[in-house]
Amino acid sequence: MSATDWVEDGWNADETVELARRLKALGTDLIDVSSGGTSANAEIPVGPGYQTRFAERVRKESEIATGTVGMITDPAQAEHILRTGQADIILLARELLRDPYWPLRADEDLGGRLATWPAQYQRATHRDQPIHESDLRD
Predict the structure, then answer these.
(1) Domain limits for position 84
(2) What distance in Å separates the CA atoms of residue 125 and residue 136, rounded to the nearest whole number?
(3) 85 and 56 Cβ atoms separated by less than 8 Å
């Protein structure tokens, strides 16, 4: 759900909270909260986690679980959002285009050992292994 269209006199966060309450009453149990995407005239202040504040507001004021998006690129950032109750789930899009193994890397970066790499990808888990001259044959 787009929490705001970032256009003067357009859709806003107050309306989003009200819609979320109504959707919860109809049985919805989670809302993916984002913003923008509805007007070419939108002036969106983009920055790390810039849409999370909307997910947090919908979560608190509508008492419904939320997912958040928007320049969530670092595992510690994602963990902070979850631990502080700003959202219930992290939804990744562009970051997974940049780094398809982000969830596995996040598990490792945060000290977990729950994720396992498919056997055929085990060698992709570490970038610190040097290239050997024997690998550079013509």
Answers:
(1) 13-136
(2) 21
(3) yes
Give the total number of structural domains in the chain.
Answer: 1
pTM confidence score:
0.79
Residue 56 domain flag: yes
Taking only the tens place, the pLDDT of each residue in 46-88 is 999 999 999 999 999 999 999 999 999 999 999 999 999 999 9
Strand ranges, E, within the chain: 30-33, 65-68, 89-90
CATH number at residue 20: 3.20.20.70
* Residue 76 resides in a domain: yes
Q: How far apart are CA 104 and CA 112, in angstroms?
A: 9
Q: Is residue 1 part of a domain?
A: no
24-47 pLDDT, tens digit each: 999 999 999 999 988 898 999 999
Q: Which two tokens stand for residue 55?
A: 């997910």
